[in-house]
Amino acid sequence: MEGVVLDTLRGTAEGGGPLWGRFDPDWYRRTYPMAAGEADPLAFYLSQGARLGHSPNRYFDEAFYVGEHEQVAQAVAEGRVACGFEHYCLSGRDERPAHWLFEPGFYRQLHKDLTDAALAKGGFANLYDHYLKRGAQEGRQAHLLFSPQIYRRHMADTAGHPVPDGMGAFQHYLTWIEEDGGDVPTTPYFDAAWYFLHYPEVEQAVAERRFKSALHHYLSNPEPSAFDPLEYFRERFYIERYSDIEKVIGRGKWFRNAYLHFLRYGQHELRNPTSFINLQYYWARRSSVVVNAELAKVVEPFAHLLTVGLLKGLAFAPTGAPIDVPEKQARALFLSHAENMAPQHARRPIDFTLQGPAQVCVIVVVHNHLAMTLMTLASLRDNYAGTIQLILVDSGSSDEVRQIQRYVRGMVHLRFETNIGFIHACNSALLHANAPAILFLNNDVRLSTGAVAAALARLESDPKIGVVGAKVIRTNEKLQEAGCIIWRDGKTNGYMRDWAPLSPEANFVRDVDFVSGVFLMARADLVARIGGFDPQFAPAYYEDADLCLQVWQEGYRVVYDPNAVVYHYEYGSSRDSGAAFGLMHKNQKAFHAKHLQALKHRFANTPEALLEARFAGRTQPKILYIEDYIPLRSLGAGAVRSNDLIRVMAGMGYQVTVFPVHGTAAPLAEIYADFPDTVEIIHDLNHHDFNKFINDRKTYFDCIWICRAHNLNFLHGYLEELKLNPNKTSIVLDTEAIFSLREELQARRENRPFNLGEAMAREFKHGHFCQEIVTVSPAEAAVLSEFGFP
Questions:
Q1: What kind and span of H or E run contains 89?
Q2: How many CA atoms lie within 13 Å of 512's alpha carbon, on the beta-carbon side?
Q3: Do residues 140 and 107 touch, judged by C-beta distance below 8 A?
Q4: Contact of 558 with 514, CB cutoff 8 Å
Q5: How far apart are CA 499 and CA 780, in angstroms?
Q6: How far is Cα 588 from Cα 584, in angstroms, rounded to an integer?
Q7: Nearest 5 degrees, angle CA 231-CA 233-CA 235?
Q8: Helices 739-749 and 756-763, axial angle in degrees (round to 10)
Q9: Which end of the chain has fewer CB atoms at under 10 Å, N or C?
Q10: Angle at CA of residue 100, ends 98 and 106, nearest 5°
Q11: Cβ atoms within 10 Å, residue 201
């Protein structure tokens, strides 16, 4: 090295030279023990140190500079320059960062006054020279992950080591971490404690002084995309979700990793940092919390979430939680809505006139409540464009229902002078039914779009399906039922009652014990063969459970389909809820006596049995499929393969539950459109909830299919604590990709040493915990076999 490089090192250039170029002999001796006894450390650096990868001072990081820029590393390897510092002095100073905590592009963009003319006039060699001589002392920020204000505040208020007046926070920080002062907060965007917890090998590396801090490791390690900076950003998710950034991400490119792109641009474009954070949703609702004047100035969406939203408990994704409305008020609003609609039906009657053979016969039993009945019938007519044979049974009404012909046309109208009850009324209607499918429908419901068509399609999808039921939601937006359970003692449960309608457990198709008569669609010939509802349960209650149990005994299935949704007033056809509960108790005893032999094989009525009891009939093996995130096909790459696997499993009849380790912020419509409707998708949980989730289901699954080795390593402790019986629950590791092989290939390209055996041992350290390991190719299977995984 000679000429301008030597002048720079000796600080003999005009004006004393840039600080990043001055050789610091005292620092050099402390940093490199082999030079500690050298009388002339600069001569040692020039003759040996530069070629050994030494830095001339604390402001130029040789290892970072060479490691970050492939072209520089190649120039050094080929001998065109002696070291990275020489390259920086000759050509790199204008564009390339000399230190992991200085980003020239960001510094120039943030401080518009630093034009080339201004730098030249001030006698600064480049932007970094300005920062070291003046910018840091002025409190200017030069990197997204180092805020001088946050660092100064912490050192003064918490650490008890305030930054001296006239000294830049940057210079103070470098000295602090060199002296092993420990990691200190420099930004809300990086969490050192979380980083060490999730990457213990990094904590060990810092302890051994191979890196000076967690932040130093994050910004200078040779695998920029292999580490996440905090709990609320996932590098891999962001790269796969936003493929447009691929060309600008990587060492030596515009952004070292995806996180720096997100901080600089992505958060302002409201891109999602993880699968479980919807930044657009959060930012639109941020004004719902009152903050102090300082926090109110936070304009970066992600910073606002980290410093305000999380502390205040603001929602950062739709939860689907039920609205907390008193049911009495909700019922009043539901009834008011019905009454407000009634006048329009007087002017424009609801028309069920048949234009050809009926596709479905709908039986509605009515006892008073005209407005509610008209709302139900209007909803039915609007809901299904096909031909409907409507049989309306007036069971002794005394109000305007007696004149219902004025408001409804084309129906079969059966009128009884006395209230004969639901069962007798339905059985009377069955004598007039003339369609292949029958729908028993309460007169106090409002149908969601497509409910009838969805149920009819389900009924016709398999000749062994005898009955289809709907997701029933009460007026307060809480579930009444998502299919129903019959217990050994003859009592029944509406599964998921009082839960949110969007709960994962309520949103997949499954065989159930029975569905309620609120919305019960059945094959007409099957109902006729059974003889309709059993009169011993008259006037009502348990007739639906009895009918469905007989359907099962006839060799047919009863299916719950969440694609059919109805809103139910509940007890709207009988205002005396006390009398209703009395009838339930009486008929439960009769039901138990009638089906005593069949009920012996039902589950006992305990909370622990709920998950198993929600299924009826012969259940198929249950598989828990664990992925980084919900594998939507739009994410591409490995997500498509996972999605295909889940489809195959579901197509084979397996009952699949998908658990995303990092949650999701994808719209529920997109999620459910991408999977078979028999798959249970746990869209509202993530790794924070996994321990409780798996303990609640520790005897439930026959197979736990873990996609990707890092998820096995992350969840291994939880699974090991379960002490699962491998003969009951097998654990399968699906490698998806062997990342050690990718790392080896990258090392070869960069001509650096790499120990594949050690990498494989780390990646598959819990591989022997699994009963099976699945690979994507015979070649990868052979590699695993070579390393002891047959």
A1: none
A2: 35
A3: yes
A4: yes
A5: 45
A6: 6
A7: 125
A8: 150
A9: C
A10: 80
A11: 10
Rounded CA gap, 109 and 115, in Å? 10
Residue 311: the pLDDT is 87
Residue 219: CB atoms within 10 A of its CB come to: 26
Q: What is the pLDDT of residue 713?
A: 94
Handedness of CA 501, 503, 508, 512 (dihedral sign): negative
* Burial group, residue 379, by CB count within 10 angstroms (0-12, 13-18, 19+): buried
**pLDDT for residue 686:** 85
pLDDT of residue 213: 96
Residue type, 745: L
For 557, phi and psi rounded to 5 degrees?
Answer: -100, 150
In whole angstroms, give the CA distance from residue 768 to residue 95: 49
Q: Cβ contacts of residue 30 below 8 Å, gap of 6+? A: 36
Q: Reduced to 3 states, what is the DSSP secondary structure of residue 725?
A: coil
What's the confidence (pLDDT) of residue 416? 97
Coil, helix or strand for 696? helix
Question: What is residue 631's three-state secondary structure?
Answer: coil
Residues in the chain: 790
Sheet containing strand 703-707, edge to edge, reads: 680-681, 655-660, 622-627, 703-707, 730-734, 772-774
Q: Can you give the pLDDT at residue 313?
A: 84
pLDDT < 70 positions in the chain: 1-4, 10-15, 252, 286-298, 319-324, 571-580, 790
Of the candidates 563, 582, 505, 518, which has an alpha carbon nearest to the alpha carbon of residue 545? 518
How many Cα atoms within 13 Å fall on the side-chain side of residue 52? Answer: 12
The 3 state secondary structure assigned to 328-353 is: HHHHHHHHHHHHHHHHHHHHCCEECC
- Only one residue has tokens 């070292």, namely 256
Q: Which domains does the chain possess?
A: 4-231+245-256 (no CATH), 232-244+257-317 (no CATH), 327-613 (3.90.550.10), 622-786 (3.40.50)
* Amino acid at position 627, single letter: E
For residues 509 and 676, what is the distance between their CA atoms, to the nearest angstrom?
9
- Are 505 and 446 in contact by the 8 Å Cβ rule? The answer is no
User: If DSSP states are collapsed to H, E and C, what string results for 527-563?
Assistant: HHHHCCCCHHHCCCCCHHHHHHHHHHHCCCEEEEEEE
